[in-house]
Amino acid sequence: MKSRQGKPQDIRATLTELRSLQRRIQRRSLEGDDLSVFGALVSKELARAERRQAKMLAKAAARAFGSEGEVTRPVIDADAVADAEQDEDRGAGPSGAGEDEGGARGASSSNASPGTEDATSAEPDSKRRGHGRNGAGAFVDAKHYVHPLLVGILGALCSACGVGRMSRYRPKLIVVVKGQPLFDAETHHFEQARCRLCGAIVTADGRDAVTRGLGSSYITYHWSACAMLLVMHYFAGLPFKRLESLQAGWGIPLPDANQWTLADASADLLFPLYKALERHGVQGALALRIDDTGSMIVAVRREIRAELAALEALGQSTNDVRTGINATGVYLETEQGKVLLFFTGRHHAGEIVDQILEHRHTAQDTGKKLVKVSDAASKNFSHTHHDELEEAVCNAHAYLKFRAIKDRHPEEYGLAGDVYNKVFDNDDVAKATGMSPHERMHYHREHSLPEMERLHEMCKDKLQSKLVEPNAPLWEPVSFIINQWERLTKFCEVPGVPLDTNVVEQMLIIPIRYLAGSFNYKTQDGADVGDRHMSLIATANANGIEPVAYLTECLDNHEDLAQRPEYYLPWVYRARLEAHEVPTQIRPPSALANRSSTRQMVEHPLRPGTYRSLIKDATGPPSTTAARA
After folding, report:
1. 235, 534 in Cβ contact below 8 A?
2. Which of 147, 268, 326, 455 is 20 to 30 A off residue 483, Cα-Cα?
3. Could you give the 3-state DSSP secondary structure of residue 4?
4. Is the pLDDT assigned to residue 601 strictly greater than 80?
């Protein structure tokens, strides 16, 4: 309603008048199309007036106490009332809109009594709105300090009203996040005595307790400092020189030469653990995903240039010279956990497959073949263990080929996106419902294979009708689907075949990030050290283990680790800590406690604190999910 000046009029009426007007509206005493508008306005104003009245009654009742000092009537929380008013202003209240406006807003009846909640209008699956901030429980390693009330406050008269007595209330939590250097230092002063006659020196006790680590009698780098250095350099990608300059500014010198000494010595101590991890991953692998990315080793590059120069000087062909230097990522899934391995050198992925499978029992011994997924590069299939593998091709790469030409061929791109959207949704449903590998295969065969065949028919029709030629942009995605059809649909024929190699692409970010800061490795030995540390850190992260604490314990117990490295594998370490009720995961343990039981999350393979997709209805493929890249 607006006045003649165009300003909205403020409706002012008593509660009795508003109720009388509502009854007249319900009797349809008014005519015209304005009935629904008047009904919504009156219902909203009525609920607001009743809420104000209840609030004032509650404030009045707050001063009426019983004989024992307890409130005889319920007190309404002012914050809750304010939140309810804001919800109604957004249209989420019990009478925010009429039925003609649709949706859940008009679900409640106008005849419902004020102050009561209609149980049928509440949706149990509705997503709870949040503020996006971390709660105090997310800071699992925070130190806790208790600030008690002054003596005499509990049980005393309230200073505000002078009538009620103070009782214990929930504590106020304030999280304080402080900055600090990456590395700290302690200087220990040990008193000494020296014999004037023979020169013998006696030192105060306690040196063994403060010299646990690497270094010398003058300076010792604690195992935690070694672990932090490995994580910051090989996982976070901070070069040694940058760490040196940062620490110099903080007054804790950490020369880059010392950093490399610590990294190299730590690699030797952790080598038994790395070999045990590699052995476990190779022997117990259920699925293998592998991919390459470029790398740089200065010494190897010099060898390649010298080899090329020697052949050119002799007048021989250089076509057979291996010039590529690759960082290969291998993602192995076992029953106990995930194993992530890195290999940097003058090789390609197919040779790494041969290197890994040399130490694995044959298919005849295990009774089934190992599932391998990679992109469609020929080097990934250039190995000698074809008979021991079920080889599949990444479906995400197939989709990306269509996405690369979406501007020129939007129709074909739209079909491919729709197909893969449904296929990946089906896979999310299979994971969220806990299907076994065989159940997942049959589920995909029923729901995903028809969609894949729809894409295959489109590609085949394009080729048969000669609507695409080899030089056309559409040729590459169409020919990819035709040539790799059996490998692309392997997940519908063999149990446990992953859809893509996205997890390998994500793990290869670690060596790429390292090279972005340090540019190269100097020698092959340096690359091997980096591969071992990256493998241990990435595997710990993938299994929900905090890497600094994990590596600290492994280094601190390196003598025992050398004797029984299997005792220090990430999942064994996690079980040991969980037995002592120590938080082990990066995310807070109760992160899913408040979520609805009807909603299930698919956990991200490399970042345990994040989730890839939310499944609301696990009985069939979801209707809408963003297309996977």
Report:
1. yes
2. 326
3. coil
4. no
Answer with the residue of higher pLDDT: 205 or 625. Answer: 205
CA angle 250, 545, 555 (to 5 degrees): 65
Q: Would you list the DSSP string of 108-171? A: S-TTSPTT---GGG--TTPPPP---PPPGGG-TT------PPPTT-TTSBPTTTSSSB----PP
CA distance 517 to 523: 17
Residue corresponding to tokens 């220990």: 188
* Location of structure tokens 């590998």: 437
Residue 21 clears pLDDT 60, i.e. is over it = yes
- Between vectors from CA 448 to CA 447 and to CA 452, what angle results, nearest 5°? 140
With CA atoms as reference, report the closest residue to 546 among 577, 507, 502: 577
Contact 207, 190 (CB under 8 A): yes
Burial label, 276 (beta-carbon count in 10 A; 0-12, 13-18, 19+) = middle
HSE, side-chain direction, 13 A CA sphere, residue 46: 23
Cα–Cα distance between 101 and 103 in angstroms, integer? Answer: 7
Question: Is 42 in contact with 21 (CB distance < 8 Å)?
Answer: yes
482 in the Ramachandran plot: left (φ > 0), alpha (ψ -120 to 50) or beta?
A: alpha
- Which H, E and C letters describe 563-576, residue by residue? HCHHHHCHHHHHHH
pTM of the model: 0.71
79-85 CB contacts, 8 Å cutoff, 24+ apart: 81/51, 81/55, 84/51, 85/48, 85/51
In tens, the pLDDT along 114-149 reads: 443 443 344 444 455 656 678 888 888 888 999 999
The pLDDT of residue 390? 93
Q: Are 73 and 61 in contact (CB under 8 A)?
A: yes
Rounded to 10°, the helix 449-464/410-432 angle is 160
Question: From CA 468, how far away is CA 464, in angstroms rounded?
Answer: 9
